[in-house]
Amino acid sequence: MINFSFMPKIIRTLLLNSWKVMWVVLADDAIEFYKKKTDNSPKGMIPLKGATLTSPCQDFTKRMLVFKVRSAKNQEHFFQATHLEERELWVKDIKRAITCLQGGKKFARKSTRRSIRLPENVNLSELYVLMKDQDKGVKELKVEKDKRLFNHCFTGNTVIDWLISERKARNRPEGLMLATGLLNEGFLLPAGDVSKDGAEKGAECVFLDQTEALYYFADSGFFCEGYSSDEDVIMKEEFRGAIVKQGCLLKQGHRRKNWKVRKFILRDDPAYIHYYDPTKGENDPLGSIHLRGSVVTAVEYVPDAKRYEVDGNLFEIITSDEIHYYLQAATADERKDWIKAIQSVSKTGK
Asked: Which residues form the signal peptide (predicted)?
């Protein structure tokens, strides 16, 4: 079983008959969805043998980034991603799984090691952690290309240069083999047309050692945005800061004390974090938190949280005005990353 979900997904199925936030897992022959990541048994399963996939799906005019999976029994299941790159990644892998099943095989990305002759002693997880090191790892950049701005990304040749400089590879062909392994295992993801074309060429993704090929870390704050040539457009002051991190978290409401999934975007200079309904885009935030002078810490429990079962990976933001916000991340590492990023912004941003 392979979990491709880096964050909760919005899902609508015949079993649920409404839109719900679920934890989705792509197995070798089915899509499974769980109420929580920590659940042992799925709430439902969609067999992929004989299934078809439609993307983009236009069945819901008020919802963006939706794709549809129709099972062999003509049951329709709808999924909504939080951003375009996430939807493309899921669509690509589900299509590959369906194709494998049509050929009498089970979908398994872990065969990548054998297909590219990756040595057994190479630990891609450890290599990925080293690459993400803020001081010695691959530097994330802003790249402007084709009237789009790619944030938190890097070029293909930069990855190969780093692997050689850190003595993880002896030469460029060997570095290319390692980078291809990272790409096929989902540690690195393609951004932009050039790298995506390379990833789609064959049964396995192909990493490109090129300055034109852009990639990003799977759990980074990557996003791509278009921009206007009109220099007279004036943004609100709180939106002027560079985006440091973004992703989905559970947030406790201030009035009803219930918990809902919100998409958070963290900016610095000025230091703000905005949160949105992940089903409605990023034009109108539901709220914002001014982080200058705030305190953020991990917590073990949340007051008034009896109505909803929340356990683990909790943290609290206390603003300079002494307003308390309680949030929950999907994993302990994700909580640690959010706390570190918010602490940094609250100290340096105005």
From this structure: 1-27
Q: Is the pLDDT of residue 302 over 90?
A: no
Q: What is the DSSP string of 236-278?
A: -GGG-SEEEEEEEEEEE-SSS--EEEEEEEEEETTTEEEEE-T
Tell me the three state secondary structure of residue 143.
strand
Which whole-number Å values give the CA distances from 343 to 89, 292, 322, 346, in the listed order?
Answer: 31, 9, 16, 5
pLDDT at residue number 62: 64
Half-sphere exposure of 153 (CA within 13 A, CB side): 26
User: DSSP character for 139?
Assistant: P
Length of the chain counted residue by residue: 350
34 near 43, Cβ under 8 Å?
yes
Q: Are strands 295-299 and 314-318 parallel, antiparallel or unpaired?
A: antiparallel
Residue 70 CB contacts under 8 Å (≥ 6 apart), including other chains: 51, 52, 53, 54, 76, 77
Which has more confidence, 203 or 260?
A: 260
Contact 320, 293 (CB under 8 A): yes
Determine contact, residues 270/324, Cβ cutoff 8 Å: no
Beta-bridge partners for 249: 262
Is residue 188 within 8 Å of 179, Cβ to Cβ?
yes
